[in-house]
Amino acid sequence: MNTSAAALIDFDWDTFDPWRIQAVRHRLSDHPLLQPDQLVALGKRFQGSTRLFTFNNEAGADANFDDVGRLYPNRKSAADTLQGINDAKAWMLLRHVQDDPTYRDLVNLAMDPIQPLIERKDPGMHYRAGWIFVASPHTITPFHIDRNHGILLQVRGTKKVYVWDASDTEVCSERARDVFHARHDLELVKWSEAFRERAHVFTLGPGMGVYMPITCPHMVETTDEPSITISLTYSTAATRRNAMRHVMNDFLYRKGIKPIPVGKRPLVDTLTYATASALVAAHGVGSRPPACPSLAHPSAYAVAD
Q1: Is 121 domain-assigned?
Q2: Which of 64, 93, 164, 258 is the least buried, fewest Cβ under 10 Å from its Cβ?
Q3: Sign of the torsion formed by the C-alpha atoms of 177, 305, 52 and 240
Q4: What is the pLDDT of residues 35-64, one digit of tens each?
């Protein structure tokens, strides 16, 4: 894979397609901020805030990601979970680490060198965010979709990542994506064991990773050892247009009008984007639409919500 000497994340830039799942490599595994002692300190700073999300490892692939923390609670503190992750039987997410000044520097260290390379094919990067996942052995990240492009980087331990193409409407329907973008609701994103046969499967160890375009369904399983992973996410001009079109299609559907799927007719996409933009401008953040603040205010960094 070819990239600049300064970059810590390596893509095959000759074949990079922002809408295609792709393996990546990285050199972040030894970074001091991704070591267990620093993650415990970060967990203590995040304790009691929405930047901490956790559940126990009885959750399966079919758990609704929106409700998994309530249905499968992990009652240990962040520090106790992270310090004893081998036996904690838990999954923990440190959300929006870019809000912490030290970790914002880490996000920028990783993303700054590759931004120009990404923007050659996918301009307008904004809404950067960092997410750190720490999981016990034999723990599942339930099946779900995300609203940004993501670069998932394995730091410690191993895991198996199942990813499906965003265009695979047998695995995740257009309607499910409409609802997700409009209201950040995963109710229509349903797991089936039959999906495994359709997945791109990556077995990740330290220094390995996978790039996942916006709303690519995915599910993750850890192996016999604890896992530490960092995900770096971002939006672009194209992801914003894509999300806004889904927002508008959800609006039409709720008005009794059957919308044309996103991407099927470019002229319709242009019109729905313009209309959705006007609605967002009129109603602002907190309206429905949009679910994601980035649609109303495409800021440099993501906003915790």
Answers
A1: yes
A2: 258
A3: positive
A4: 999 999 999 999 999 999 999 999 999 999
